Automatic annotation (TrEMBL):
UniProt xrefs under SMART domains: FN3, IG, IGc2
Top-level lineage group: Eukaryota
Keyword Glycoprotein in annotation: yes
Protein name: Neural cell adhesion molecule L1-like protein
Organism name: Falco tinnunculus
Length: 1171
């Protein structure tokens, strides 16, 4: 291939690419070629139970080859026997089993020939075994003496190996074998010396041939063992036997190998096979066999012995196993030896086989053939199955090489190389095809290819040509060969386009040419969009028992939608697309849902998207978080009286590191079964030094904590008891609780069980009156309180409490000051005065009572007041008391919520924990006038074209002398804009109606009426109405109310109002917000505002904001009364007090009398908004 390299503009030309066809592709069958054997049989056994036997030989070539056979080197005619069934166009034939077929046994060879040459198969050996049988014979009994050596011969019949020989009795029980009695490799049974119990008449030899499914039995043999025949004295039989044994004792003698073989013998074994060396000896006592390697390298492992040490076995023999091995048979009488000279040989094997191929006319040929073996194999060359005659062969021939120059078409032939030694023969064939043909393009013309962007595209152009062809590729209408680094031409003619782009789509042409001719094909390439994947969420961390949903989002080319597939894998294993584990894991195409996640669900989940052109994956690693496993293996060490070291092994953290370990204890002396926290160990610490209390019998457990939660507690440790000791601390929280005036109850917190430190816990209580020189009074108690009687009222005492047990006392206790019992105060506050702040608020002053008259701890003061009469009408009122409580030692307070323009009486008393003291003398004060409440009603009585008459009622409470009324009105058509506010002052306080004139027709108005005193005007009452074009006016209380359409309209409005109220009620009960604030901002309550200003001064609500413009008081001269009083000036009532934000909560004691301050304004009462 010529390649022109450059960086910019210079291309790489991919033409004149030469294919090495000899090693590339097979010769197409359409091209004339030599035969080649494609299939053949090997060594085959014709079992008698098979119906037929097939000898295979298949070959291909052009022209179609014909077949011939040889048997044992001689021509074999398949038609010579009717039991042979031949196949057409094949060398395979079948031998039918019709009785005796031993004549077919032999070595066969198949030859496949056509006009170009002949191919030859390896030898095929057909073995026709005979049915093995033992000959019928009469076997004479063997009569031997005790101690003699005996051999029972088996002489098994010949058959197909493997052969298994067994010695059994007539009941098919194995003859026991040992060092004295054993079977040789040939199957004979050897007795090194016989005993009387060896006598029996049913020694049977069985020969088994598994491949023939046959077991044959030899006739039973009889062995008689008798005592020493010449022992005729009258002594005991045992003495005769001993004498016989003594005479028979002898040194070992080798039976295998026999003595006739001499002291040594040669053994040949095939490399890779099994070496078996056998020594069997006779003698009395029974000889013992041992083995040793005399010469050569010692084997790596100790040689394996079988048959009670009589057989040396080496598997997979190598050249290193060559050498001299010696067996030794020994007994106390002597020893016998034999040496085996082991030679390792091997059949032929190839070092270099001849390789055929396709050659063009005029080229040269060299075939090499080399094999090794032991003995060294002989090499024979054959041409078309016949030995080569070097006299007529035009090339050069040697044992390892054949060469030819200037090959011509008639030099096409099959060359065979055969290597042989005494262990076998191997055959290698080389087909030399000399061809001279124009290029053949084996790939179909007009093939369509497709790939995705970024992948490589492979356009095939399989060529066969001789001589070799030059190949080039072009695109679309261009005649220039493709040239770029992305294009690569492979040896088989395939064009690889790397990292494809959309613009690579188009039509391509493959051109092939040699000296004989040229050919071309076209191919079409489509580039599709690559498939894209993403799995969300990416690498989630999920708590155990929670759920996780993995989503596989994909994009793929629309042309590939029919082949698009999605699948899921977990840790590389595919998950089935159905519910698993009773629906806990559910796959539905692009989603994977796992409910109640377990630790086993943790892993890497892969979404695999595949189309016919590409396959992509996206992964997400699921991490399952759980509480740690419980700690294990708790151990105690470093034992001390008040400490011990606890160590443990941490359990699995389950992907969330352990933050701390909680160490708990349980003791069975005071609170058995109750576990209490002792300390905590940070992070991954697995040991802690524990501080312990005396006189406790501890056991411990540990709980690990991570971000998920706590583990289960560990198993408890062993118990650890600490010795007793004196108390380390005294009781705490020593106090004197409320009691009778002449009594004092001292109490304290008892020591906890872990603080007792030992048995016999008591408390030593010491006390004395403070400021009086006297000795300490002492008393020992077991409970945690002590009552003293006949003490002075409210006198300070010094008190000490000390813990004591059987081992000693606790530390010196601290002194606590406590007071004896209290009594109610016996004096009333003096100098009570009242400062009126405004019409509803006063400030009270007094002088506190002396400390010694409190007779206890002063809790505070109570101010009581009641209304005596109204200043407006002079009527007297039944006194109904109210009170406020002022906590602490103070001398003033604020009294809010009073009725304006009224007379009151007021008293002050002091109180302590025991109760209230006497009241002060009543003080009389009067509240000034205030603004009136809103009029009771406002009605539209009648109207004409441009006027209307209004009527209203008196205010519910005037709170002073009325000075008149303010009448206001403005246009409020159904728009966001409202008209200007018009004011009319009614100076006559007796006037309760007014006629307005100058109104516009067909216009909606809103009317306001409010009552006034010298202090200002109160909250207005409102009404709305609509004037009509004809001069009629839509009032709420006049004639139109009887018309049908108006009644229907009112019903609809009532229904809507009910629905709105229901919704508001539901929202309020749900904690929702009801938007009243805006309405209050639009129409604020002037009376409520004035009251708030009067009572709270600078603590009034500052959140009011105007909607449009600024809010303006109806009566501009009303201003908030400023007050510098603090919130603490207001006392506590019976049911409540003032909050810190200045709001008053709770109610006064008793019911409010008529005329008290309360909100009476309707929901429609609003401030007018000036446009």
């Amino acid at each position: 291939m010529e390649m022109l390299l450059s960086t910019k503009g210079i291309t790489i030309c991919l033409f004149f690419f030469v294919l090495s066809l000899a090693a590339a592709i097979e010769i197409p069958l359409s091209v004339a070629q030599l035969p080649i054997i494609t299939e053949q049989s090997h060594t085959q056994v014709a079992y008698p139970f098979d119906e037929d036997f097939t000898i295979k030989c298949e070959a291909r070539g052009n022209p179609q080859p014909t077949f011939n056979w040889t048997k044992d080197g001689k021509p074999f005619d398949l038609l010579s026997d009717p039991r042979i069934v031949a196949s057409n166009n094949s060398g395979t034939f079948v031998i039918q089993n019709r009785g005796i077929i031993t004549s077919f046994q032999g070595k066969y060879r198949c030859f496949a020939s056509n006009v170009l040459g002949t191919a030859m198969s390896e030898e095929i050996e057909l073995i026709v075994p005979s049915v093995p049988k033992f000959p019928k014979e009469k076997i004479e009994p063997l009569d031997v003496e005790h101690g003699d050596s005996v051999i029972l011969h088996c002489n098994p019949p010949k058959g197909i190996p493997p052969l298994h020989i067994y010695w059994m009795n007539i009941d098919l029980q194995h003859i026991p074998q040992d060092e004295r009695v054993s079977m040789s490799l040939k199957g004979d049974l050897y007795f090194a010396n016989v005993e009387e119990n060896d006598s029996r008449s049913d020694y049977c030899c069985f020969a088994a041939f598994p491949r023939l499914r046959t077991i044959v039995q030899k006739m039973p043999m009889t062995l008689k063992v008798s005592r020493f025949k010449h022992a005729n004295d009258s002594g005991s039989p045992n003495a005769a036997v001993t004498k016989a044994n003594f005479i028979k004792e002898r040194k070992p003698k080798l039976l295998i190998p026999p003595e006739s073989a001499g002291s040594s013998s040669s053994v040949t074994v095939i490399k890779g096979g099994v070496l078996l060396l056998e020594c069997i000896a006779e003698g009395l006592p029974t000889p013992h066999l041992s083995w040793v390697k005399v010469t050569g390298n010692l084997p790596k492992d100790e040689p394996e012995t079988e048959n009670f040490g009589k057989i040396l076995k080496i598997d997979q023999v190598t050249a290193a196993d060559e050498g001299t091995y010696q067996c030794t048979a020994s007994n106390p009488m002597g020893r016998a030896k034999h040496e085996f000279h082991v030679h390792v040989e091997e059949p032929p094997r190839w070092i270099k086989e001849p390789e055929g191929g396709v050659y063009s006319v005029g080229t040269n040929l060299v075939l090499l053939c080399e094999a090794i073996g032991n003995p060294e194999p002989t090499i024979q060359w054959k041409l078309n199955g016949m030995p080569i005659d070097s006299r007529t062969f035009r090339g050069r021939i040697s044992a390892r090489e054949i060469s030819l120059t200037n090959l011509q078409l008639h030099d096409s032939a099959v060359y065979q190389c055969e290597a042989s030694n005494k262990h076998g023969t191997i055959l290698a064939s080389a087909n030399v095809n000399v061809l001279n043909i124009a290029p053949l393009i084996l790939t179909s013309d007009g093939e369509n290819y497709a790939t995705v962007v970024g992948y490589s595209a492979f356009l095939h152009c399989e060529i066969f040509a001789s001589p070799a062809a030059d190949i080039r590729w072009t695109k679309d209408d261009s005649i220039e060969p493709l040239s770029a680094l992305r294009y690569e031409l492979n040896k088989n003619g395939t064009l690889e386009i790397k990292e494809t782009k959309k613009e690579d789509s188009g039509s391509y042409a493959c051109w092939a040419a040699n000296s004989v001719g040229k050919r071309a094909i076209t191919a079409n390439l489509d580039i599709r969009d690559a498939t894209k994947l993403v799995v969300t969420p990416k690498n989630p961390r999920v708590l155990k028992s929670h759920s996780i949903l993995l989503k596989c989002q994909s994009e793929y080319d629309s042309h590939l939608k029919h082949s698009f597939k999605l699948s899921w894998r977990k840790d590389g294993d595919e998950l089935p697309f159905n519910s698993t584990e009773y629906g806990r894991v559910i796959l539905d195409r692009d989603t994977l849902f796992i409910s109640s996640v377990t630790l086993e669900d943790q892993g890497v989940y892969t979404c695999v998207a595949s189309t016919s052109l590409d396959s992509v994956t996206a992964t997400s690693q699921l991490v399952v978080l759980d509480v740690p496993d419980p700690p294990e293996d708790l151990q105690l060490s470093e034992n001390q009286n008040r400490s011990v070291r606890l160590s443990w092994k941490a359990g699995a953290s389950h992907n969330s590191p352990v933050n701390e370990s909680i160490i708990e204890f349980e003791e069975n002396r005071w609170e058995p079964g109750r576990w209490q926290e002792l300390t905590r160990a940070p992070g991954n610490d697995t040991t802690a030094l524990l501080s312990l209390a005396p006189y406790m019998n501890y056991q411990f457990r540990v709980t690990s904590v991570n971000a998920v939660g706590r583990s289960q507690p560990s198993k408890p440790s062993l118990r650890y008891a600490t010795p007793p000791a004196a108390p380390d601390k005294n009781p705490e929280n020593i106090r004197v609780e409320a009691s009778e005036p002449n009594e004092m109850v001292m109490k304290w917190e008892p020591l906890k069980p872990a603080e007792r430190n030992g048995p016999g816990l008591e408390y030593k209580v010491s006390w004395r009156q403070r400021g009086v020189e006297a000795d300490w009074n002492e008393e020992m108690v077991k409970k945690h309180s002590l009552t003293l009687r006949n003490t002075p009222t409210f006198v300070p005492y010094e008190i000490k409490v000390q813990a004591v047990n059987n081992l000693g006392s606790g530390p010196e206790p601290n002194v606590t000051i406590g007071y004896s019992g209290e009594d109610v105060p016996d004096a009333a506050p003096s100098g009570v005065s009242v400062d009126v702040v405004n019409s509803t608020l006063v400030k009270v002053f007094w002088f506190g009572i002396p400390r010694d008259r409190v007779r206890g701890h002063l809790r505070g003061y109570k101010v009581s007041w009641w209304k005596t009469k109204s200043m407006l009408d002079g009527k007297r009122h039944h006194p109904e008391k109210h009170f406020l409580t002022f906590v602490g030692d103070r001398n003033y307070g604020m009294i809010p919520g009073l009725e304006p323009f009224s007379e009151f009486r007021l008293t002050v008393l002091a109180y302590n924990a025991k109760g209230d003291g006497p009241e002060s003398s009543p003080v009389v004060f009067e509240t000034p006038e205030g603004v009136p409440e809103q009029p009771r009603f406002l009605r539209i009585l009648n109207f004409d074209k441009d006027s209307v008459t209004l009527s209203w009622g008196l205010p519910k409470r005037a709170n002073g002398h009325l000075t008149g009324y303010i009448l206001q009105y403005q246009i409020i058509n159904e728009t966001h804009e409202i008209g200007p506010l018009n004011d009319i002052s009614v100076a006559n306080r007796s006037t309760l109606s007014w006629r307005l004139s100058g109104l516009s027709s067909s216009t909606k108005y809103k009317f306001y009426v409010k009552a006034c005193t010298v202090k200002g005007c109160g909250k207005p009452v409102t009404e709305e109405g609509l004037t009509m074009a004809q001069g009629t006016y839509a009032g709420i209380y006049d004639g139109i109310s009887t018309q049908g359409w108006f009644i229907g309209l009112m019903c609809a409005i009532a229904l809507l109002t009910l629905l709105l109220l229901t919704v508001c009620f539901v929202r309020r009960n749900k904690g929702g917000k009801y938007s009243v604030k805006e309405k209050e901002d639009l129409h604020p309550d002037p009376e409520a505002q004035s009251i708030k200003d009067e009572i709270f001064g600078e603590y009034s609500d500052s959140d009011e904001k105007p909607l449009k413009g600024s809010l303006q008081s109806i009566n501009g001269d009303i201003k908030a009364t400023e007050s510098a009083d603090s919130l603490v000036d207001y006392g506590e009532g019976e049911h409540g007090m003032f909050n810190e934000d200045g709001s008053f909560i709770g109610a006064y004691s008793g019911s409010k009398e008529k005329g008290s301050v309360e909100s009476t304004g309707s929901s429609t009462a609003t401030f007018p908004l000036h446009a």
